[in-house]
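Hello,

Following up on my earlier ticket. Below are the two sequence lines again, exactly as submitted.
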Amino acid sequence: MSASPRPAEERDALLGVRPRLAAEPASPEEAAEAMSAFARDKLAVAFVGGGTDLGLGAPPARLDAVLHTRGMARVKEHAPSDQIVAVEAGITLAALQRHLAPHRQRLSIDPPFPERATVGGIVAASAFGPLRTRYGSARDLVIGITLVRADGVVARGGGKVVKNVAGFDLPRLLCGSLGTLGLVAEVVFRLHPLPETSATLRFGGLAAQDVAETPPVLRDLGVEPAALAAVEEGGAFTLAARFEGFAPGVAEQVARTLARAGSGERLAGSEEAAFWARHDALRSAGDVRAKATFAPGTLVRAVEALRPLAGALRGGALVLHPALGIAFVAGWLDGADPAAAAIESARAALGPLGNGALVLAAAPPALRARVDAWGAAPPAIEVMRRLKREMDPEARLAPGRFVGGI
Amino acid sequence: MNDVARRLAEVVGAGNVVTDPAELLVYEADGLTHGRTRPALVVLPGSTAEVVEVVRIAREAGIPIVPRGAGTGLSGGARPVPGCAVVSLARMRRILEVDLASGWVRVEPGVINLDVTKAVSGAGFYYAPDPSSQPVCSIGGNVAENSGGAHCLKYGFTTNHVLAATVVLSDGSVVHLGGPAADAPGYDLLAALVGSEGMVGIVTEVTLKLLRKPEVTRTFFATFPSTDEAGAAVSGIIAAGILPAAIEMMDRLAIEAAKAATGLDWPDVGAALLMDADGPKAEVEHVSARAIEITRAAGALEIRVPRDEAERQLMWKGRKSAFAAVGRISPSYLVEDGVIPRSEIARVLREIERMAKEAGLRVANVFHAGDGNLHPLVLYDARNPGEEERAEKLGGEILRLCIRSGGSITGEHGVGAEKARYMAEQFGPDDLETMARVRCAFDGIALMNPGKVFPTPRLCGERAGPYRPHPAEVAGLAERW
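Thanks for your patience. The regenerated structure is below:
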């Protein structure tokens, strides 16, 4: 039976923790079989998709087996006229987009590494890219889910229709749960039409204050960018706004935005793709990556709070998503003590900014030994622990990987 | 119970505990008036601290709690269970804080949906979810039911707009979920809360996302010989890559009713569409013109573009009043709420018509066509023996048709008391058991709104340990799976 696990190898390790076994199911059914077998043997198990977000959170405290999802990668159903797609969790984002493109549709989620990132991993890690500005994150686009519980039971939530309030919202609850509540085996997404055209405007030499003022200025102007991000270059920020839609609408928004700014340029052809690729690369660079969140109106103070961390890293840079109130700090570890101190001070400063937080998306062991990947346990931690106990009573799904040691 | 009422009165004030049978009448049902149960009492707390005390008293006395917002729900979600305390949030209606720089507002649960928009519209903002009941329904109820509305096709549902909530759980603890900052670390408990139909706790504060009003909105109204052509127009518009802000359909009976209620000069036709496009001006002008072309090509009889905002509002009034308007053409009616894949609209409407004929009843259809959210209104006359039962049976068969078509038994009204029995047809036992586990994480004793959503009420934690009867079980309010 192909669902039988094989002995694990070094490449199966998760944040340095090497399991004994690795399963590579070819379908959700085989995944459920594997999970039932793991349950019988009371094995601790973690799920791995494309491995692009494995640095998020803490290493598992115990790990007997990993389950790779890449073998289950079929498009189960694509209904173009209903703008929905049902896929197995292991399909990569790029493969899914290639399937959808001939129908002039897409899944409006754009995290880095689409050729490797799987949709199951995107859901489990709540991964996102600049398009979140307009389309929201996985939780805003997932409409149905099939999960395999720790005990091997297969359960569905949501469905195949965009609007549906029947039952508790398992699809959204699984978003960001990092494999600690169950295996995301299949996902149904809401799709969007591919835009007829897009255009990216670039504005260089900005201070944090200018970046902070951009979302309200654009709102006042009545234009609606699909993506808005700023990257740090040579001590100043370069901000990009991407407009998408029908050609007349895009042209008019571009013209109006440039006129209001009095500066800036429209990126031509390959320049546009190059800018967003650079944005992804900066966001994903280095061996230390942190995601900071804050109320969007507090961006200037958030940047101040994050400066020391960027400074404590070698090549440390900031990437800002001003409309979302999210910033990434990425760079190379240059002394664990100063980085740890900068993380703690950033957390203390972000907390008051509308319940802000800083979460590690990558960190070498030396840094992990000094700071918790998630920071202080959230106020509702007791309910979260109870939810974990309900879904995984034996604490076998990636134990210790999530907030508060869950 | 007198002792409980006395203790509650000490917390909330004597005037905020209702025990008089005549006054309790109002609370016997929500917007779904044909199922009625009298609660033991109604209590109206005025603050989070008072809610905590109310929950503690009810818990100690073993009295189930049924939270209630404005009571406009259409699935019996706020219908009392025997012997329960209804906790009405109607007194908690303050708008606590507005932060336009970050785009949010913090409110108490009794605040009326439309009042949120009114509070921020001067600054050019609004709260997007717009159930037809928005002038009267409350935010707490919206959170419980994950309310939608005509414009959720583009802007999403309540769950997409709730940033944070304060919730009192059945153990009397107060938990704070989310915040104005995105991606609060931990499980997305807000996702579990929104749409949980009062079964996880009592929401005492909610932080809502505010949106900037779109630069322009363009509306058109189109008439068709039948719902077939109207359905084809909807499909064509969506296939062209257009995402309308709203696209609503009405059939002949619904049009007739809306005209009778509002005096609109709509023609007698087989179907009508009402579409909004909103956003930046040039984009909207383009999209609107293109949608009108497609609508014409799909076989529209007439297309009307409102001359001004007043005429536009009138068109929307016709649509939004359609439910109530059906009262003009039928002494009684059931409001159903089902969802089907958008591409199935024409086929399912024909099937509903056939089923209605077979049952000897009329069905008016007024619905959110863009997301396939049907609202069949089953017309009947309760004075005719057996007709009400036939209507209920037809309503149930329509829900089953939605399930068979790959859809759902509810798009926005919730499962409540009314549709719990259909849940087992849409979901398997393992699906439902998994959902029940989520509820157990919040409310391990099934104190909050017992008996709703799940076809077979289930108690938590029976997987291990010796059997001990639960107070709700003893009272006959629940049973073990």
